[in-house]
Amino acid sequence: xxxxxxxxxxxxxxxxxxxxxxxxxxxxxDFKTYKPLLSGIKNEYExxxxxxxxxxxxxxxxxxxxxxxxxxxxxxxxxTYTCRY
Length: 85
Description:
The chain is mainly alpha-helical. It is built from two helices and two strands, in the order ββαα.
């Protein structure tokens, strides 16, 4: 599904990642001399992406609770604070 922001169409990040993965696979297969090096780079990249996804999953509950506390704080501040203007 496409995302719209300020009139521009953005293809989801997952689609970009898949396209890059396929191009890199093609390069690995095409450049036989550098195949071991490129394969190692690709594997490290994939491991880093997996690690980042795990970190994001672990931080998601913290983001939700932070958003809740911010909302609660704003409600408290709006009910007790009056604008001087």
